[in-house]
Amino acid sequence: MRVGGGKKHGRYWIRDSTIDTASTPTLSQIRARSTDSAPPIRPRPTATQIQIEQATMEARIEEKLREERERYETMMRSMLTYFQSTGVPPPPPPDLFPGLAGVPPPVGVPPPVGVTPNVSASPADTP
């Protein structure tokens, strides 16, 4: 459809032909012809209704995430309690950022065994 409101007398350009809106029934004509058994013509939702639905959906998602997080924390606490009761040390925490292998460990944490730190050569090492 071309921009600019169509053609005169209510015709619209669509591809190579035109549609004459005089033969297209109006909404009031469609409503008058519809019977009680026909599905009703529903109005479009307003912007406010859409925003309310989106906010409701976001609240549901947040609630599900919160419940999932609580379930995970409960599971981790029970695992830690089990490890403590058996005398086995708990496993190390997971690597949250595996892509940051080149980042040095926090202060006070020794580097992993078998890994040499990336230290540049000192001036005394050069000939």
UniProtKB/TrEMBL annotation:
<feature type="compositionally biased region" description="Polar residues">
    <location>
        <begin position="24"/>
        <end position="37"/>
    </location>
</feature>
<feature type="region of interest" description="Disordered">
    <location>
        <begin position="24"/>
        <end position="46"/>
    </location>
</feature>
<protein>
    <submittedName>
        <fullName>Uncharacterized protein</fullName>
    </submittedName>
</protein>
<feature type="region of interest" description="Disordered">
    <location>
        <begin position="83"/>
        <end position="103"/>
    </location>
</feature>
